[in-house]
Every structure is written in structure tokens, then in C-alpha cells.
From TrEMBL:
SUPFAM superfamilies documented for this protein: ATPase domain of HSP90 chaperone/DNA topoisomerase II/histidine kinase, CheY-like, GAF domain-like, Homodimeric domain of signal transducing histidine kinase, PYP-like sensor domain (PAS domain)
Record PROSITE patterns: HIS_KIN, RESPONSE_REGULATORY
Catalysed reaction, written as an equation: ATP + protein L-histidine = ADP + protein N-phospho-L-histidine
Gene Ontology terms, MF aspect: phosphorelay sensor kinase activity
Origin species: Geomonas paludis
UniProt-recorded name of the protein: histidine kinase
Length: 715
């Protein structure tokens, strides 16, 4: 017979009684692990140290009793069988012990029931543990189901057979501000439709296969939704319904966007096809208006063209005779004429004061509601306007205006082509008559071309001389002077050293002047930059900094470089020149031991508003003078030098302008001692203009100057 293992905690003050209990259990076939305690503290330590199967306790001991042992067991939180074995115990005490949690009680004089009682209590304890585990699994499963239920992105609502809401998931808080309290116990039709009666049985139709209803809108919610309902049995014969409400607003928006885009593309294609006709401008304008009425559901339309300063109607469709007569010819003093000359669209919901008085009455009489007028223009030249209108409550959106402007732009090009063709026909005779004059002037033109070629060659030769014949000797002079000053070791008097230093500084200034002149020439000749490519401006700053390592170390000027490592579309050669000029100026105007900082960061388009008051001092048209982009890169060169007077900050970007004497434009004693050419900052501004960016200067925090370069990033 295989022995069963059993761990027994004995609460007993008698060693002999404990041995009797152990022997009885071993006779019952148990292999025992046991421990005897007789105090509350001893029992606590034993419960913490070992996982016991059963506790057997004497009822009364000198310093402890069974009721105290039960209290200690309850405090430990363990569910163990607790059996009282006592030499004498009254029935009332036994009942009290059982009420306190004891499993059973035996008399020490009769231990025959001990093994059966232990076996019974072990079985019941195992059953209790199994029951608790089952209950824990049920609770955990319910909690998991609740989490999944609340995590579903769709709104799920459970109602009874009458449509009263009994439960919903956590998505309810996204649609109803009051959350659960706003919907539980309410009728589902009431919370979605309010006082309005729903069309059809949105929440009553039972889907045999779970198919969804058509897309619907609810008065109490914004957007579009899809509702699917399923029957369910709740308890007994009670029935209910599960309603799944899916938010399909984004899908509908995408579908609507596609329909709108398709309509716009089809309209543009149809218009482009119509504009290919060559039957005359009047016929083309009439066909265009007819096409717009078909494609865009217009009710009224007309086209006016400028004849001098007067607007004259050249085509119309759907207008009443009274309105057409009032709008036939509009003099310059009419508000409609003035708005047309502005070259910007204008629109409204009803005929208003912008209409001529008679035209306004005619528009009201024919039921004009929404209307939009867009310019016919090429570049900045306004040729006329196209007006469309509807009888319905449809309002013209920005997108509608953009589409109409695109169509008007195509029409303007065609009208301009016809106009040019007519003018060419008128000029044909004049050109023929001028043939002889042109023949006579041909020789003059040839001679002028020869002279222009000579001048152009002379200009190119001059640039070649400036870049080679001047730079080469200047470099030789500067190198020789620098060698004599710094490395030759030739003894010189102070006067000789001063003269030679003056020669060296003058040569440096002359070389800088030649380089600046060549840079100005290249910038003005090249125009808009065609060599833009992404470049890391922080990397460029570090490369420029390396060019000034020696003078910086001699003057103990600290240069810090740091910022956003973003790629900026620039002409790297020109930007390097701009940063070099700014860094050289910062070194020149900073005292020995000073500090120069080069920083860069990305700015959102909205930040331009903050810069406008400052930049308007330097660019009156800002922000219209820079490229429109979603974001910009701001590169700043700051120093703690002598600064620039407020009244001269704008003028320093002019060619050949220098800010007074300022100590020969140097705050150091070892380098950059000469006054500049006055071209460096002009070059920087030219480079920023070519990049469609801006440059400006402000006082730095703590004194000195901060030069800022703003480059457009994403368009």
C-alpha cells in the first residue's frame, strides 16, 4: 500500500498527545511531515514557512487556545481544514468553535474518527480550491470579455425587445457627452433621433444573415453611419437585440472626394475639348457656357470682356431679358466693374449691393440665389470676368472657385490667342509697308550687333582679367607679405613692420574686393538658381568654420555650431559664400575672447506671422516676396560683438555701404584689421533672393548682432 503524504501543523502543548495524533494518522496510511506549536507567534512562523494540508489543535492550552489558533489561521488568509482534538470540551464551546471556522472536533479519548475526518476535510478543501479556481477563471474571462467589448472601435448597443438600452461599450463616450448615463435606460430611437421620427425601421429590422442597412445620418450625431442589428436571447424567453453602429464618415468623405474629383476632371476635359474649336471667340464662349451648365448644374452664366475701361457682355445663357439688359455694358464707376478689375474672385449667397441697381432687381426677379464671378486673366492682366449662378441653395466652396478659375484661365488664353490673331492680321499691312524700312535699317542693326558683340567680348575679357590677372598677383603679394611678416625672421623696425602689415592688410582687402565683385557679377548673371539640391547646412557651417581656425585661435574667439540636421534645397556653393561672409563679419566685429554661435532650426509656416513685424523693415512685401512652403529652415549667426546701430540695420545690405569707421571694422589685434568692400552683405542678400528666401539682422541677446537666413523647405 502506497503511503499518502500529509503535512500536519499540530497546535498542542503536550508532547505525548502530539505523538498519539501522529501515530494515529500514520496508522491511517499517511506519510507525515508535522510540526508542533503552542503559541500564536510560533503558529504564524509555521504558516509562513510551510504550505500545510491540515491544522489539528487542542482546544485549551496554558498560553493559547483553539479560538486564538483559528484567528491566526484566518489572518494568514489560508483555507486549511481546522480540526479540534480536546480532552474535554462542552457542546456550547464546540458549537462556538464551529461557528468561528473549525471544521470538526474530536475527543482525545476517541481518535478512531480522526483519519475519516481528515480525509473528508481534505476532500472538501480540494473541492473549495477547485471552486475558487473556477470562479477566478470565470471572473477573469468576464473581465477579458469586457475589455474586448470596450476596445471594439464600433459603437455596440444592446437593447431589450422594446428598444430600451441595457448595455453599451465604451465607445459611447466618443459620441455622447454624458457617456453611459446619457444612454442606459433610454430608448435607442430617442438617443439617435431625438424627437424626430426615424425613416424606416433603422433599429428594428432583423438581419437574417447580418447584412447592413444603407448608410444613414442621425439628427443627434454628425457624420454618416452604418447600422447592423442581430437578435439575441438574454435570459429564459426574454429577447433582445445587438446593434452595431459603424462610423463611416471618413469612407463617405473619400467617396465624395472621388466623385468630386471625377466630376472636375471630366469638366476640365470637356471644357478643353470645347476650347479647341476654331469657329470664332463668340462661338467658343457660348459652347463653354453650355458645357458648364451640363457638367456643373449651373442655371445662369455670362461672360464680360473689357473694352477699354468698360465691361461688355459677350456671351450668356439662362439670363432673363431684364437682367441681361442691365448687365450688358458696365461703366468704370460701377462696383461690379471695380471688383472685376481687381483680378480676384467674388461671390455671394443673394444679389446684393455689388450688383448694379437694375441688375439686382432683375436677378431677384429671375430667382438668382448663389453666384460666383471669377476673373479671366493672363498673368496680372485682367481681360474680363465669367459669372455663374444657381437657383438652389448650393453655396460655392473654395474648391468650386478654384475649378472655375482654372476654366476661366483656359478661356482667357484662348481669347488672348484670338485677340493676338486679329491684331496680327491688322498689322500685316503695316508690316508689309515697313518691309523697305526694315531693309534699310538692316545694315544699322548689323553694325549695332557687331558693336554689341565687341562690348560683350570686352566685358568677358574684363571678367577674365579680374579673375586671373588680378587675383594671381594679389595672391602673390599677399603671400609674400605674410611670409615677411610671420615667417622670414628678418629684423624690422617698428615703422617697417607697420608698413609691411599695412601692405598685407591692403592686399587682403583688395583680394576680398575682387572676390566680392566677381560674386556679385555671378549672382546677377545667373539669376534664379538652377543647381539646388538637398544640403545639410550644419555640415556646411562646420566646413566654413574650418577656414577660420587660425584667426579664431589667435583671437581666442569661441564658435559653437548646432541645430536641426535637416536637408535644405540650396545651391551649396552660393550658400557657403553667404555663411562665410556672415562668419567673417561676426569674427571681425567681435572682441578677442568673444563668442560666435551658428544655429539652425525648422519653422512651420504659421511662425511667419511672428516674424512679419521685424521683416517688414527689410522687405516691405513680406511674406509675399518669399516662396510659399509648409516649413522653412532658419539659420542664424550670432555674436556678442559691438553690434549695429538701429538706423543702419536696413542699409547695410546695400552695395558698397559701410557702417561708419567702427575702429577700421575690427575689434581684434591680430587679424581682420581692414575695412571691408561693402559688398559682403549685398552678396548675402542676392543669394537669399535667388533662393526665394530672406535675410535680416537684429540685436543679439546680451549685445552684439544676430543675422538670420530663412530658406523655404517643402512646397
Amino acid at each position: 500500500m502506497v503511503s499518502k503524504e500529509l503535512k500536519v501543523l499540530l497546535v498542542e502543548d503536550s508532547q505525548e498527545d502530539s505523538l498519539l495524533l501522529v501515530r494515529e494518522l500514520m496508522r491511517g496510511g499517511y506519510k507525515l511531515e508535522h510540526q508542533r506549536v503552542e503559541t500564536a507567534e510560533g503558529m504564524r512562523r509555521a504558516l509562513e514557512a510551510v504550505s500545510w494540508d491540515v491544522v489539528i489543535s487542542d482546544y485549551s492550552m496554558p498560553s493559547f487556545d483553539a479560538l486564538g489558533a483559528l484567528q491566526v489561521l484566518h489572518e494568514s488568509g489560508q483555507d486549511l481544514p481546522f480540526i479540534i482534538v480536546s480532552g474535554k470540551i462542552g457542546e456550547d464551546l464546540a458549537v462556538a468553535a464551529m461557528k468561528s471556522g473549525a471544521s470538526d472536533y474530536l475527543m482525545k479519548g476517541n481518535l478512531t474518527r480522526l483519519v475519516p475526518v481528515v480525509e473528508r476535510e481534505l476532500r472538501e478543501a480540494a473541492e473549495r480550491r477547485t471552486h475558487r479556481q473556477t470562479q477566478d477563471k470565470v471572473r477573469r474571462g468576464k473581465a477579458e470579455w469586457e475589455s474586448v467589448f470596450d476596445a471594439v472601435s464600433d459603437l455596440i448597443i444592446i437593447t431589450d425587445a422594446e428598444g430600451v438600452i441595457s448595455r453599451c461599450n465604451g465607445r459611447v463616450t466618443s459620441y455622447f457627452p454624458g457617456g453611459y448615463d446619457a444612454v442606459l435606460g433610454k430608448r435607442i430611437d430617442e438617443i439617435f433621433f431625438g424627437a424626430e421620427q426615424p425613416e424606416g425601421a433603422v433599429f428594428r429590422f432583423l438581419h437574417s444573415q447580418g447584412e447592413a442597412d444603407e448608410d444613414v445620418r442621425f439628427p443627434n450625431l454628425s457624420g454618416w453611419y452604418n447600422v447592423t442589428s442581430y437578435p439575441m436571447r438574454i435570459e429564459g424567453n426574454d429577447r433582445g437585440f445587438v446593434h452595431i453602429i459603424k462610423d463611416i464618415t471618413k469612407r463617405r468623405e473619400v467617396e465624395e472626394e472621388k466623385r468630386t474629383s471625377d466630376r472636375e476632371l471630366l469638366t476640365l476635359y470637356a471644357v478643353a475639348f470645347r476650347l479647341q474649336y476654331t469657329k470664332g471667340v463668340e462661338k467658343v464662349m457660348g459652347d463653354l457656357l453650355f458645357q458648364l451648365h451640363n457638367m456643373l448644374q449651373m442655371d445662369f452664366s455670362c461672360i464680360h470682356l473689357f473694352e477699354g475701361e468698360r465691361l461688355r457682355m459677350r456671351a450668356s445663357l439662362g439670363l432673363s431679358p431684364a437682367f441681361e439688359k442691365a448687365m450688358k455694358s458696365l461703366p468704370p464707376d460701377e462696383e461690379w466693374n471695380r471688383l472685376a478689375q481687381s483680378g480676384r474672385p467674388f461671390l455671394g449667397e443673394e444679389p446684393d449691393a455689388r450688383f448694379p441697381e437694375k441688375a439686382k432687381k432683375g436677378a431677384i426677379a429671375m430667382g438668382l440665389h448663389s453666384w460666383c464671378t471669377v476673373p479671366l486673366k493672363i498673368g496680372q492682366e485682367v481681360m474680363g470676368v465669367m459669372t455663374v449662378g444657381t437657383l438652389s441653395g448650393h453655396s460655392y466652396s473654395d474648391r468650386d472657385v478654384f475649378l472655375l478659375c482654372s476654366i476661366a484661365g483656359q478661356l482667357a488664353v484662348l481669347i488672348d490667342n484670338y485677340s493676338l490673331y486679329d491684331k496680327m492680321k491688322e498689322k500685316a499691312e503695316e508690316l508689309y509697308k515697313s518691309k523697305m524700312e526694315l531693309k534699310e535699317n538692316l545694315q544699322k542693326v548689323k553694325r549695332a550687333n557687331i558693336e554689341l558683340g565687341r562690348l560683350n567680348t570686352a566685358k568677358n575679357n574684363f571678367i577674365g582679367i579680374a579673375s586671373h590677372e588680378l587675383k594671381t598677383p594679389i595672391t602673390s603679394i599677399m603671400g609674400g607679405a605674410e611670409f615677411l611678416l610671420k615667417y622670414s625672421g628678418i629684423p624690422m623696425t617698428p615703422e617697417q613692420h607697420s608698413i609691411l602689415a599695412s601692405v598685407y592688410e591692403g592686399t587682403v582687402q583688395l583680394r576680398k574686393l575682387v572676390e566680392d565683385l566677381l560674386s556679385i557679377s555671378r549672382i546677377e548673371a545667373q539669376g534664379p538658381l538652377a543647381q539646388k539640391k538637398p544640403a545639410n547646412l550644419m555640415h556646411v557651417c562646420r566646413e566654413v568654420h574650418n577656414l577660420f581656425v587660425l584667426p579664431l585661435s589667435e583671437r581666442h574667439i569661441t564658435v559653437t555650431i548646432g541645430g536641426d540636421e535637416a536637408d535644405v534645397p540650396v545651391d551649396e556653393g552660393f550658400v557657403t559664400l553667404a555663411i562665410r561672409n556672415l562668419l567673417e563679419n561676426a569674427i571681425k566685429f567681435t572682441n578677442d575672447g568673444g563668442e560666435v554661435r551658428l544655429t539652425g532650426r525648422v519653422l512651420k509656416h504659421a511662425r511667419l506671422k511672428e516674424l512679419t513685424p521685424t521683416l517688414r523693415q527689410f522687405y516691405s512685401a513680406f511674406p509675399n516676396n518669399i516662396a510659399t512652403a509648409q516649413s522653412y529652415y532658419l539659420l542664424q549667426v550670432s555674436d556678442n560683438g559691438i553690434g549695429i546701430p538701429v538706423d543702419e540695420r536696413v542699409r547695410i545690405f546695400d552695395k558698397f555701404y559701410g557702417v561708419g569707421d567702427i575702429g577700421h571694422h575690427s575689434s581684434g589685434d591680430t587679424a581682420f584689421m581692414s575695412k571691408g568692400s561693402g559688398l559682403g552683405l549685398s552678396i548675402v542678400r542676392g543669394i537669399m533672393d535667388a533662393h526665394e528666401g530672406v535675410v535680416w539682422v537684429e540685436e543679439a541677446a546680451g549685445g552684439g548682432s544676430t543675422f538670420s537666413l530663412l530658406f523655404p523647405l517643402q512646397k
